[in-house]
Each structure stands twice: as structure tokens, then as C-alpha cells.
Amino acid sequence: MRTLKEVQVGQTVKVSKLTGEGPVKRRIMDMGITKGAEIYVRKVAPLGDPIEVTVRGYELSLRKADAQMIEVV
């Protein structure tokens, strides 16, 4: 299984599972990132933080640590 952190810029992936616990998982879900959601990776900062994505028509920035908790296919 790969995580959102490993996805290349320009790719669209679908969320298969959210790992993580408590407030961190809740924050990710509050952004609209839930199982089955499609995520388009727009840009990754030179050092990998933040990762800019488009989810459900919204442009978001994710920390690398958060992206590692999102498993995708």
C-alpha cells in the first residue's frame, strides 16, 4: 500500500484508508479527505512539505506527516 506522500505531482489517486488517531484523523476528515475521495497532487515543496492537493474542488495544503497517514490506490 502506498501513501499520499509517495504520489508524484500531477497524479490523481483515490483514498483507500485513513490511518492515524484522534484529532489528527479528525482534521484530515474535516478537510473532506475520506475513503473514496479523489485527490489530485498539484505541487510538492522542494523539501516535501507542504504537499498541495485538490480534493472535491478545494485546494488544500497538507503536511508531510499528515500525507503519510492517507493510504491511496
Describe it.
This protein has about 70 residues and is α+β, with helices and mostly antiparallel strands. It has 2 helices and 6 strands, in the order ββαβββαβ. It has a 6-stranded antiparallel β-sheet. The N and C termini lie close together (about 5 Å).
Task: Provide a brief overview of the structure.
The chain is of the alpha+beta class. Helix content is 18%, strand content 40%.
Mean pLDDT: 94
- Low-confidence stretches at least 5 residues in length (pLDDT < 50)? none
**Rg value:** 11 Å
| Percentage of β-strand residues | 35-45%
> Order of strands across the widest beta sheet?
1-6-2-3-4-5
Q: What structural class results from the helix and strand content?
A: alpha+beta
Termini Cα gap? 7 Å
Tell me roughly what share of residues is in helical segments.
Answer: 10-25%
Given the structure, what is the number of helices? 2
Counting copies of identical and different chains, the oligomeric state is single chain
Biggest sheet statistics: 6 strands, antiparallel
The 3D shape can be described as globular
H and E string: EEHEEEHE
Total beta-strand segments: 6
